[in-house]
Amino acid sequence: MSFNSERGSSLPIVLVLVAIMLILAVTLVSVVDFNTKTVLNISNHETALHIAEAGYNKYLYMLNHNTYFYKDGENQQEGFIIKERYKSSDNPEWDGYVKVYEPVAYESGNKIIGYYQITITPPTADTPVLGIQSTGWTDNKEAKRTIYVEVHKRTFTDYVLFENNEHESVPFSSDSKIKGPYFTNGDLYALAGAEFFDDVGYVGRNRASGAIFRKEGQPVKMNPMGLPTINENLTKWGRTENGGYTYNKETYILLNEDRMNVRLKGEERQTDVPYPKSGVIYVNGDVYISGVLDGRLTIIAEKNIYICAKDPTIEVSTQRDYNQLYNYRGITYKNQNIPVYNKKDVPNSSDDMLGLVAKENIIIHNRTHKWPQATKGNINTTVENIQVQAALYCNSVTVQDLDYISYKDWGQIKYLGSRVVKQDGATGITSMDRNYGYSSDNLYDYRMQYEAPPHFVEPTNAGWEVVTWKEVHNN
Q: What pLDDT does residue 29 have?
């Protein structure tokens, strides 16, 4: 009896040990399973972030090939199919622009491992950056990550005036108003009383004692910016096969809103000519131009561009005939709803934009003998307060014959846009506290902080720069 009792009493102990072992085994399996799921979850989240970044990089690649891809960019081959566009109720300036793309499959090793979706926030004059939101998720939809990146493209049109100043500078006069960002690779040179209303950058010396800087912290000494030459990459857009126009003679152009009148030297005048599809006209010679633009256009001249007050396509031989022509006062846009320094928030802003690129100079035309030859003559083509609404790129902006117009004050050259010059030029003189010729009013078109005329000249170090990068938490 005693032996049987001892065997029976050991059974509960064995059962307890077995139970403990089972509990430990189950716990171990649970811990392993939990750790496996945790590692897998972390891996999925890292993969989702990788996919989101890949989507952003792919979109940036498309943007570098087409600066305006954010407006209406669609490329089915690369997977960018528009899902939704902005409406006027969202923002009148963005009406019709891309808002959201369809999800795009992301492959690795010929296997789909997830998807990304791109949402765009277009730039404005107040916020001149492009917002790119990229959401990535894994194929099993267990993880989703979103990044939001703001980018800005560095362009010459970032400035109301960009001066390379290869030689001695011409100072801003005491009554000059610079109403926009200004940059010079040379000295900052301005007489007392000149006013600067925005950022001011210079590379050389500060010779602006007595000038007025309205923005706090200005001026700022900066690194130089490279100035490129006008090359094949720009002029190719004027070829017929690329949708442009090429004229191989001295050319006279009247911008007649959404059309133009054109006359080549020695040929008949053409009227109601549509603008080229590429938006670029290339002229192997001089260009004479005036009028009103309704559209987007860039004109490139191998020589000079003369800005005229009246229609240069009409030939006149006497002062009386010239005086009877309509006075366009230079070049203007049809839609004048343009954001400027004291009024950046402009709904339904103009989409008109002109670029003038001269390998030599851009010249304010002021006299002629047989229109519009700039030779010894007796027809005065000067007008008061001429307007130049465009982005300009040239050696310098000057008047045709300063001595010819220096007998009186002709008011101002009213610039609206951006000027890029290798060397600043004189358009007037100051003597005995009186101005003769033209002074200048420099008003920046703040649309040019985020866009430029068709195929306009870019800095040698141009490209989209990241302004901010952040991860957005998904709900």
A: 52
pLDDT tens digits, residue range 307-317?
Answer: 999 999 998 87
Q: What is the pLDDT of residues 105-147, one digit of tens each?
A: 998 888 899 999 999 999 988 888 999 999 999 977 778 999 9
Check: CB of residue 100 under 8 Å from CB of residue 49. Answer: no
Q: Strand pairing partners for 247?
A: 283
Q: How far is CA 415 from the centre of its chain?
A: 18
Q: Which tens digit of pLDDT belongs to each residue from 403-451?
A: 556 667 777 889 999 999 887 777 766 666 667 677 788 899 999 988 8
pTM over 0.85: no
Mean pLDDT of all residues in 361-389: 72
Nearest to 405 by CA among 419, 426, 424: 426
Report which of 93, 74, 89 is spatially closest to residue 351, judged by C-alpha positions. 93
CB 409 within 8 A of CB 435: yes
Tokens at 172, concatenated? 């801003």
Q: Give the residue from 297, 332, 328, 294 showing the smallest Cα distance to 416.
A: 332
- Give a three-class secondary structure readout of the chain: CHHHHHHHHHHHHHHHHHHHHHHHHHHHHHHHHHHHHHHHHHHHHHHHHHHHHHHHHHHHHHHHHCCCHHHHCCEHHHCECEEEECCCCCCHHHCCCEEEECCEEEECCCCEEEEEEEEEECCCCCCCCEEEEEEEEECCCCCEEEEEEEEEECCHHHCCEEECCCCCCCCECCCCEEECCEEECCCEEECCCCEECCCEEECCCEECCCCEECCCCCCEECCCCCCCCCCHHHHHHHCHHHCCEEECCCEEEEEEECEEEEEECCCCCEEEEECCCCCEEEECCCEEEEEEECCEEEEEECCCEEECCECCCCCCCCHHHHHCCCECCEEEECCCCCCECCECCCCCCCCCEEEEEECCCEEECCEECCCCCCCCCCEECCCCCCEEEEEEEECCEEECCHHHHCCCEEEEEEEEEEEEECCCCCCEEEECCEEEEEEEEEEECHHHHCCCCCCCCCCCCCCEEEEEEEEECCC
3-state secondary structure 27-41: HHHHHHHHHHHHHHH
Parallel/antiparallel/unpaired status of strands 130-138 and 434-444? unpaired
What pLDDT is attached to residue 425?
73
Tokens 């007008």 -> residue: 383
Taking the C-alpha atoms of residue 163 and residue 420, their distance in angstroms, rounded to an integer, is 6
